[in-house]
Structures are given as structure tokens and as C-alpha cells.
Write a structure and sequence with these properties.
mainly alpha
Length: 83
């Protein structure tokens, strides 16, 4: 989780540097700049959500292995000539 948060912080700081530089220039298109900020924040939120979802699925899989749910669910075999 530390790497995800550190990566998000680095991306956020880089994005804020770009926003700061863009605001100091003349003829700044604030709509494009706002879209960039929103997309950057969305990317950060999605990366944290992805990591959490992967972590929850690993925990659930470990619990299923302990209770033998995976063995009963996924031990189906094809009989005969299955093509």
C-alpha cells in the first residue's frame, strides 16, 4: 500500500507542478486545466481502489482455501470426449 500511495503522491505533485506552470502563462485554457486535474485525481483514486480490490480478493481466496470452497467448486471434470 505504501508504494501505491507514494506513487499517487508523486503523480499528484507532478500534476500540480504542471498546473502551476500553466497558470502562470498567458491565454491559459482553464477548462482544459480543470479537466487535467480531475483526470489526475481520478487516476489516483482508481489506483487505490484497484489495490484495495486486489487485496480483498486475496483475503477471500485464502479464506476459501482454508474452508475447501475452491476444491468443491472448481473440481469439475469432463467425462467422455469433450471438445
Amino acid at each position: 500500500m505504501r508504494f501505491v500511495i507514494i506513487g499517487d503522491i508523486i503523480v499528484f505533485l507532478f500534476a500540480m507542478f504542471i498546473v502551476f506552470k500553466a497558470c502562470r502563462q498567458e491565454n491559459t485554457d482553464y477548462l482544459r486545466l480543470g479537466t487535467f486535474v480531475v483526470l489526475t485525481l481520478t487516476l489516483g483514486a482508481l489506483s487505490i481502489y484497484t489495490y484495495d480490490t486486489r487485496l480483498m480478493s486475496k483475503v477471500a481466496q485464502e479464506q476459501w482455501k482454508k474452508s475447501s470452497v475452491l476444491d468443491t467448486t472448481y473440481s469439475m471434470e469432463a467425462i467422455g470426449n469433450a471438445v
